[in-house]
Amino acid sequence: MYVTPLGAASSRVWGRRDQLGAECYLRGDVDGSADLGALLAHLEPVLRPGEYVFCTLPDRVIPAGVAPLLVFQEDEGTTLVVQRSDARRIGKSYSTSWAWVSLEVHSSLEAVGLLAVVSAALAGGGISCNVVSAYHHDHLFVPLDRGEEALVILRSLTDHEVRVSDTSPGPNAD
């Protein structure tokens, strides 16, 4: 199984409750899990409050009073992800407002397939997403008016993974 009881040998610092309410840790190390099945079983998508936009700056100077969620340097300029109110306040244009969904499972930067499964599921629902991988978690920006719908789709991935693992025969089955 994917979890060990609280206090058992594990280098994980991320905890969660199992079906019986006991605190558990996802097996892995401090760099996160790379096990696709475990990642899907413990995906835990969370819709963060706020309305976010992508905008660009021609230089690398972030205006005073702006607290960007993301800064990325490209050849063409600096991309910022900021609250819509910050973009308006500093006069930056943007095309679309986005909802921010965090995948609370601690995935390894070397994990293979998680974002492919997540992106395919959202695409199947006609939902575009912009993905950001950070050290501890992956984050998705989906159209603002589809944030709740994205959560339903993402939670169905976890529900499916749990159903499959709960009903599959164990290694000692006849």
Report on this model:
The chain has one domain: VC0802-like (2-Layer Sandwich), CATH 3.30.2130.10. It has four helices and nine strands; from the N terminus they run βββαβββαβαββα. It is globular. The model is unreliable at 1-30 and 161-174 (pLDDT under 50). It has a six-stranded antiparallel β-sheet with strand order 5-6-4-7-9-8. Strands 1-3-2 form a three-stranded antiparallel β-sheet, with no helix packed on it. The chain has helices at 36-41, 84-89, 114-124, 147-167, and strands at 3-5, 15-17, 23-26, 45-57, 70-74, 77-83, 98-103, 130-133, 138-143. Helices cover 25% and strands 29% of the residues. It has 174 residues and is an alpha+beta fold.
Name the helix and strand elements from N-terminus to C-terminus, one letter apiece: EEEHEEEHEHEEH
Number of domains: 1
Termini, distance in Å?
Answer: 19 Å
CATH architecture: 2-Layer Sandwich
Q: Structural class, judged by helices and strands? A: alpha+beta
Q: Descriptors for this entry?
A:
VC0802-like, alpha+beta, single chain, 3-stranded antiparallel β-sheet, 174 residues, globular, 25% helix, 6-stranded antiparallel β-sheet, disordered C terminus
What's the layout of helices and strands?
Layout: E1 3-5, E2 15-17, E3 23-26, H1 36-41, E4 45-57, E5 70-74, E6 77-83, H2 84-89, E7 98-103, H3 114-124, E8 130-133, E9 138-143, H4 147-167
Antiparallel strand pairs: 1-3, 2-3, 4-6, 4-7, 5-6, 7-9, 8-9
